[in-house]
Every structure is written in C-alpha cells, then in structure tokens.
C-alpha cells in the first residue's frame, strides 16, 4: 500500500511511519516540523520507500500534491498538547479543522482509506468512571482555551463520519488516550517525559494540584499497532474507537513510580494549577477508556504495564543524555 502520514515526523506519526515501512508499505510523510522533528525520522531517513514532504497542512496545494498517489491517509497532523493549545487557540482551530475537511474531500475523490487521529479530550470532563464511544461530550465553556482542542477534534469527527455516511468513505476515528514512549517531548504538557527529565535532573517532580487526578498511559508501539489494525479492518470503517490503556493511575502514583525507578530520595513538589497553566485552566480529573469496542474490532488493545512503559522511557532518556555528552 502507499500511505500518507500527516504529522509523520511527530511522536506518534514517526513510530507509525517506521512500522508501515517495516510492513513493506510505501510512506509519504507530510510535516511542517513545528512540533514534529526531523530527528524523529533519523533511523529511516533515506529509506527507499520513504518520501518526506516538509510543509503545512494548512496549504491546500501542498495537500493535494501529497495525497495524489496514495491508498490510505493517516491524518495525525494537528496542534496538540494541552499547553500548546491553551497558549495558541487560534492556531489550534486553524490547524485542526479546515485541513481535515480538505483532506476528506480529496480522499472522497480517490476512495482512499482514512484514519482520523482524535483524542480523549473530546469527552471533556465527563464524570463517568470509564468512557465509551457513545458517551456524551462534556466540554467546558468557550472562555476557557483548553476546550478549543477537544472541540476542534469533535468537529473533525463529525466531518469524518459525515463523509462516511454521505460518500461511503472508509473512515475510521481513533480517540487517543494518554500515549507515551520514546520521542515524546515534554514542552507541550505531557507529564511522563517531564517527570522523567525532572527525576534525571535530581528532582523535585512537579505534580500539579494534589496529584489525585487519574490517567491511563499506553505505549506508542501498541497504539501504532491498533491504528494499523483499524485501517486494515474494513468492518471498522465508519466507527469511533478509544485507543489507550484502561489501567488507571493517579499522577501522584505516576510520580512515585518514576522516583522509585530513578532515585528514591527525590521529592515531589505540589504546584497549583494556576501557577502551572494560568488562572483560566481547567483540568480533567479522571480519564479512563473502555476499550472493548477496539478489542472487538481488531482483537487487540494496549496491554503494557506502567512499569514497562516507564522503563522504556527512562532508558531512552538516559541514552539521549549520554549521546549529548559524547
Ligand atoms: N501534570 C503534572 N505535572 C506536569 C505535567 C502534567 O502534574 O509537569 C498533570 C496534569 O495536570 C494532568 C496530568 O498530569 O492532570 C496529565 O497531563 P498531560 O499534559 O500529560 O496530559 P492530559 O491528560 O492533561 O492531556
């Protein structure tokens, strides 16, 4: 297959690109290298079945050039990360909405398979213990920039499903929960790389609020397998799928697990949300997916434990630091 990965130099996109190449596919990566990094593709740069196009998905001509000869589009390019989105809501809206519609239109002309990367942010602050794909979206007020991200992705989902209904486009929507692993950077929120860096620097770890907020962390390799599984399963088309781990952990427990692995003498510093993100920030207190829909569709779901994931991230960060020293 010939595949296009928008955002292919990003954290998840670069892992997806590697995997698609390893499976024997041709891959075109489209990335503007804003949050994505060329270094993420270092291991595969020069590969005979890889083409890298540097440019923005907000450029319509560039998009139509990129989709021309492909069979499947993995649309991962977006303004991502709670911090980035809170800092620049205009960029979020422009990057996350119009280009998705253009891409869907282009895909209809060619009947291309389409994976839309969406996010657990669309559930907002739904108070349920575990979220299923048919649950209501509980977004906060438009005066709070955090919700611009989830709302923009919800519009993308509406668009994708509408194109499926109206034109029978084989679209599949994946809602990523917290995805972690090597190459994730901590500049845009992203608690795991931040905690690991803080620990390797000798601490303290900056836990926001009291640390009782809950997340589930999945390894990027397993998430990539789920994306590919969904696109390769014709019966999955037209559906929405939570993609993530369903093992809840509080942020305090996460900090303790990092400390235990790096240096048990490191301390935790509790920082108010207002200091971390500014006064108009709202956090999501609990975010746990029900992944049975995913498992029914493709026969798999992310299963790595938090310990295995942290060991992998710590190993990667240590190697990076060693390389930087030498
Ligand atoms: N968090 C934290 N310290 C940090 C970064 C994040 O305590 O340095 C918390 C944050 O408030 C949230 C959780 O960790 O409750 C996950 O944050 P992240 O930005 O990784 O992703 P989110 O799930 O909020 O999109």
Number of helices in the DSSP assignment: 12
Write down the secondary-structure element order: EHEEHEHHHEHEEHEEEHEEHEHHH
**Silhouette:** globular
CATH superfamily of the domain at 2-180 and 220-245 and 289-303: NAD(P)-binding Rossmann-like Domain
Mean pLDDT: 95
Largest sheet: 7 strands, parallel
**Count the strands?**
13
Widest sheet, order of strands: 3-2-1-4-5-6-11
- Rounded to an integer, what's the Rg over CA atoms? 19 Å
CATH topology of the domain at 2-180 and 220-245 and 289-303: Rossmann fold
Structural class: alpha/beta
Question: Which molecules are bound in this entry?
Answer: uridine-5'-diphosphate
Describe this structure in words.
One of its GO terms (cellular component) is cytoplasm. This is dTDP-glucose 4,6-dehydratase. A 7-stranded parallel beta sheet has the order 3-2-1-4-5-6-11, with helices on both faces. It has a two-stranded parallel ribbon with strand order 7-10. Strand 1 (2-6), helix 1 and strand 2 form a beta-alpha-beta unit. It has 326 residues and is an alpha/beta fold. Helix 4 (89-96) packs parallel to helix 6 and helix 5 (98-110) runs parallel beside helix 6. The chain is 41% helix and 17% strand. It has a domain at 2-180 and 220-245 and 289-303: NAD(P)-binding Rossmann-like Domain (Rossmann fold), CATH 3.40.50.720.
């Amino acid at each position: 297959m010939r595949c296009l990965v928008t955002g292919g130099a990003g954290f998840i996109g670069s892992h997806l690109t590697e995997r698609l190449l390893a499976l024997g596919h041709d891959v075109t990566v489209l990335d503007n290298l804003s949050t994505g990094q060329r270094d993420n593709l270092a291991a595969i740069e020069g590969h005979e079945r890889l083409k890298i196009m540097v440019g923005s998905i907000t450029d319509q001509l560039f998009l139509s050039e990129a989709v021309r000869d492909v069979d499947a589009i993995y649309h991962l390019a977006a303004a991502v990360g709670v911090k980035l989105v809170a800092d620049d809501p205009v960029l979020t809206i422009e990057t996350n909405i119009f280009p998705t519609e253009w891409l869907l239109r282009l895909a209809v002309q060619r009947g291309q398979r389409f994976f839309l990367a969406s996010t657990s942010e669309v559930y907002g602050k739904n108070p349920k213990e575990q979220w299923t794909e048919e649950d209501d979206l509980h977004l906060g007020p438009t005066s709070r920039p955090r919700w611009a991200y989830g709302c923009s992705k919800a519009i993308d989902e509406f668009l994708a499903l509408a194109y499926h209904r109206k034109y029978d486009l084989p679209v599949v929507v994946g809602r990523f929960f917290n995805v972690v692993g090597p190459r994730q950077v901590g500049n845009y929120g992203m608690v795991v790389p931040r905690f690991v860096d803080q620990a390797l620097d000798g601490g303290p770890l900056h836990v926001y609020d009291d640390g009782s907020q809950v997340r589930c962390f999945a390894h990027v390799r397993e998430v990539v397998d789920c994306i590919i599984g969904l696109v390769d399963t014709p019966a999955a088309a037209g559906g929405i799928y939570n993609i993530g781990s369903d093992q809840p952990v509080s942020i305090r427990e996460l900090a303790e697990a990092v400390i235990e692995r790096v240096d048990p003498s490191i301390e935790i510093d509790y920082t108010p949300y207002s200091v971390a993100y500014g006064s108009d920030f709202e956090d999501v207190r609990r975010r746990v997916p029900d992944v049975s829909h995913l498992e029914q569709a493709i026969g798999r779901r992310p299963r790595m434990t938090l310990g295995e994931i942290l060991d992998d991230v710590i190993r990667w960060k240590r190697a990076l630091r060693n390389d930087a020293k030498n």
